[in-house]
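Technical note accompanying the year-one report. For the benefit of new consortium partners, we illustrate the data format agreed upon in the data management plan: each record pairs a sequence with a structure-token string. No post-processing was applied to the example shown here.
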Amino acid sequence: MWLDVRYSSFVQASKFESIQAMRALAAIMVLVLHSKIMFGAEERASLLVIPGFSDIGYYGVQLFFVISGFIIAHVVSKPGFKVMPFFVRRALRIYPLWWIVMSVGITMFFWRSWFRADVDLLGWVGVLQSYALFPQKPYPFINPGWSLEYEVIFYAIVAVLYPLTGIWGVFVLMLGLSTAANAFNPTDGYHLVDGSYLFFGAGIVAYLLRNRSWQEAAPLAVGGLALAYGRFYEAIPIALNGAMVALATGFAALLVVVVSLERNGWSAPRFIIRIGDASYSLYLWHWLLIPLLSMVRNGLFADKGSPELWRWILIFTSIAVAQASFRWLELPSIALGGRLSRRIAGDRVRELG
């Protein structure tokens, strides 16, 4: 019962349920794309092609970045923003679950030598750096965590720059970093200058324009996404950089559309919102479920079953595990982050008083 109350409190605290629906979309895009990893080349060729998901689901990560820019702009724009409470909330939102998933992955490595290629590439120093989400050129031990390295850098930039320049200063830096990446194509591997920051900046703009109507934003959403996806499907001949700008614009406008629709009474189905709430867990745990379900399929089922069936077993199992993880692992750390940040903010107020 207490879990239901805690979950209800979390949902009520989430002002933008439409954004949670977009989180669900982004997570499912990545999950469907990665589901192909379960199979060899021949079986993979037999899977149904799901346009926008099984072929280009990695765009879901860019959507996550746009959502992050939107949400962080919302968080820092609240009255009384303070850096230390912000850091505490963000750290307890990301690291506890990441450490748990990392540790389970390491256990799987020692158990059955899964992820050996990642350990060999990173070395144990790199694995330890993965725990810290320290930016490094190879993917971290849990590969989807590469995007979290960018998130941590974005949070650090916001914490330093927002008190000095406001949210527009953060946007200008995001634009500058992505522009510099396109101009100089750095290869240091530490993510300090990278085109991904364009999407965080797009999310900031989406937040600043959140009160515009969906009728105004819809043409930009349709046009931007049509250009980006058209380029992938070789229907529209534009440069890759132009396609990324179109994608960032399209996703940002899409957020404005769904927020406007929510403001006018639209609501996504509750199960979609719940998937969005658990999208962080879904994003991480599915990576460990891929080898586990592959072992079950290859070891316990003589005929193995069709690849398409097992793809959907993976998808639904991942969603179920993510729901449990959200309730039992994420919510407690979210609550702890809230309590600690309020305590720190209160202590700071008393010091100033």
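Partners are asked to follow this layout when depositing records. Residues 17-348 form one domain.
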